[in-house]
Amino acid sequence: MTNYLLAGGGTAGHVNPLLALADEIISSSKENKVWALGTSEGLESRLVPERGYELLIVPRLPMPRKPNLYALTFPVKFQQSVNLVKQYISANNIDVVVGFGGYASAPAYRAAKELKVPYVIHEANAMPGYANRVGAKSAAAVGITFKNTKLPKATFVGMPLRKEIIEISKSDYRFEGAKYFGLDPSLKTLVVTGGSLGARRINETIEASRKVLDAAGIQVLHIVGDRAGLEPIHEGAYSRIAYCDRMDLALAAADFVVARAGAATVCELAAIGLPSVLVPYPVGNGEQRFNAESLVEAGGALLVEDSKFDAAYVAGTLIPLLSDSKRVMAMAEKAKSQGVTDGSKALLNLVNGVLKGK
């Protein structure tokens, strides 16, 4: 029996790989035990318990960006979080910590180091986040999703994907997906998503393009995100929903996808073999552009800047592309060539290799 603590969360892009590894751990041996470490504000607060795992809570402590009162109090608050995680590790006899980045991971790495418990890092993005860049220096091992990621001790494992996504990559769930969302499986279907938090530019552009998409005979499932403030509707060939708990079925129903270039999204599209237009998030360190690099270079996706994804792009580029079935099929094959479907198993092998070397 091995006790694992998996740290991470915030958005679905961090939570889903954590849950994928958790499922792989339990399926490898029913004697294993898994705890997740996260905040009460992130999606993990809902998704982790729904999956049947216990969530241990730590405070959400963003790194201070400027000298102020918060920056002065941060070191004390951070050490308090570290001490709390040390209590979790000791109380549950944790054998190994696996971190996925984000607010929960930084104190988990420090706590594991202070208790001399090995920890393993999984970096989802091509450009590593701060917590993982710092944590990698003392990690027992580091798993990366993209081969162009630069971290010490890096081993390519790919992205741990949910079993639902893996099943879609092996089977045809198109009719099941269409039925779930009330779509017509005979129509060419475009799925649009900005991720769990949504994407303003993508939402506005698709809203402005509804008529031309409908005129082209293209059915749209538009996932706008919880924070968009847009009401769910179903009008003709256009369906709008706020949040999608069954992205596996949404992708199963899709012929083509417009999305942000989050690491999980890029990896899921490749695993399934779905062609796409990727619109990287324009704020931050630009990691989404690098996430999309290999898929775009292979010809499985197009990349468009956020500022250039507008109604003119939809009318002049997207619709003609979707109307070219041969090109869409060719893109699908090229996307599939980049897919990795055993990321969960590869990451677990990396973690277990560390345990064997203790």
Fill in the CATH topology of the largest domain: Rossmann fold
The number of helical runs is: 16
Distance between the termini: 15 Å
CATH superfamily of the largest domain: Glycogen Phosphorylase B
Structural class of the secondary structure composition?
A: alpha/beta
- Overall shape: globular
Query: How many separate structural domains?
Result: 2
For the sheet with most strands, the description reads:
7 strands, parallel
CATH architecture of the largest domain: 3-Layer(aba) Sandwich
Q: Tell me the name of the CATH class of the largest domain.
A: Alpha Beta
Range of helix content:
40-55%
Q: Which oligomeric form is depicted?
A: single chain
Which residue ranges are poorly predicted, with pLDDT under 50 across at least 5 consecutive positions?
A: none
Q: SSE order, as H and E?
A: EHEHEHEHEHEEHHEHHEEEHEHEHHEHHH
Note the topology.
Elements: E1 3-7, H1 12-28, E2 33-38, H2 44-50, E3 54-57, H3 69-91, E4 96-99, H4 105-115, E5 119-123, H5 130-135, E6 141-144, E7 154-156, H6 163-170, H7 174-181, E8 188-193, H8 200-208, H9 210-215, E9 218-223, E10 233-235, E11 238-241, H10 247-253, E12 256-259, H11 263-272, E13 276-278, H12 287-291, H13 293-298, E14 301-303, H14 311-322, H15 325-336, H16 343-356
Parallel strand pairs: 1-2, 1-4, 2-3, 4-5, 5-6, 6-7, 8-9, 8-12, 9-11, 12-13, 13-14
Antiparallel strand pairs: 10-11
Protein architecture, described:
- The longest helix has 23 residues, at about 70-90.
- The chain has helices at about 10-30, 45-50, 70-90, 105-115, 130-135, 165-170, 175-180, 200-210, 210-215, 245-255, 265-270, 285-290, 295-300, 310-320, 325-335, 345-355; strands at about 5, 35-40, 55, 95-100, 120-125, 140-145, 155, 190-195, 220-225, 235, 240, 255-260, 275-280, 300-305.
- It is of the alpha/beta class and about 350 residues long.
- The chain has two domains: about 5-160 and about 340-355, Glycogen Phosphorylase B (Rossmann fold), CATH 3.40.50; about 165-335, 3-Layer(aba) Sandwich (Rossmann fold), CATH 3.40.50.
- The strands form two sheets. The protein has a seven-stranded parallel beta sheet with strand order 3-2-1-4-5-6-7, sandwiched between helices.
